[in-house]
Amino acid sequence: MKFSKKSEYGFRALLELVSHYNRSVLLRQEIARRQNIPLEFLEQILLALKRAGLLASRRGVNGGYVLIKSPDEITLGQVIRILDGPLAPLGCVSKTAYQKCRDCPYAEKARCPIQDVMLEVRNAIADILDNYTLSEFVKGKKAKRPQEGYEGKN
To answer: Are 43 and 82 in contact (CB under 8 A)?
Structure first.
């Protein structure tokens, strides 16, 4: 599974914003310069994160972007879903954007071998990304993994 440039740039922008959490706003131009992100692309990313309630923006001379949700409460899975959509490799194993397979010969059967494996893949990916916060990401700490089963979202 490969994440898009949008998610990669989003994480890089969030690294900057987390480093200024509860201290000051950051100009989008400054984020773009520090993280080598094309400004036009960064604007789209910041807007998506703002719409999702993670960021706020201020206009004017002292304007810029600020993280308004604690980095301890934001998971990497949330960010990827905001920027790229579901984590599932196939729509038929997604928890939030389920889509029934139309052309698959197993779609009407009780068991699909492809779906069985891809559900395990989705659960493994979500198990890590939904239990890894921005704080842990910035500090380079490993995520706390659940002990039994998986109860995350996708």
So the answer is: no
Q: Are 13 and 37 in contact (CB under 8 A)?
A: yes
Sign, CA dihedral 100-116-109-151, equals: negative
In the numeric block, which tokens belong to residue 48?
């998506």
Alpha helices in 52-153 (DSSP H): 76-84, 113-129, 134-139
Treating both helix axes as pointing N-terminal to C-terminal, what angle do 5-19 and 39-51 enclose, rounded to 10 degrees?
Answer: 70
The first and second tokens of residue 105, run together, are 């010969």
Residue 121 phi/psi, 5-degree rounding, is -65, -50
Count of H-run helices and E-run strands, the chain: 6, 2
What's the pLDDT score for residue 103? 83
CB 153 within 8 A of CB 130: yes
Rg (CA), the chain: 18
Quick one: average pLDDT of 109-135?
Answer: 88
Please give the model's pTM, rounded to 2 decimal places.
0.82
User: 């990916």: which residue's tokens?
Assistant: 125
